[in-house]
Amino acid sequence: MPGRALRVLNPREAPLQGADGAPHGRAARASRGTGLNGFAHYLVPNAALKLKQGFGRLIRSRGDVGAVVLLDRRVVTKRYGAMILEGLPPATRLVGHWADVRAACEEFFARHGIWRRSR
Fold this sequence. Notes:
The protein is mainly alpha-helical. The protein has five helices and two strands; from the N terminus they run E-H-H-E-H-H-H.
């Protein structure tokens, strides 16, 4: 969505589900007989792709700015989280408490003249 229509993408969690909605069903079926781990070779790359597509919907042109606030701690606590984050476009990353993340978002938007903090 170009322009000011969309400023924040806030996925509740990394999209670690198969196309059928089952977390492991499709991945297990896809990897059956291949010797590959369906989670690592199907679900994680698929989650990274979906998040990257979300970035693309947020930032459509050079003039667009926005924030992606991913509230899923697994991307920083689980080994597969690094694989998900590696596929995302270059961006400032902040891991912390909600108050710190919110303050950073407020500062970011104020810097771009989009939102002014109410005091």
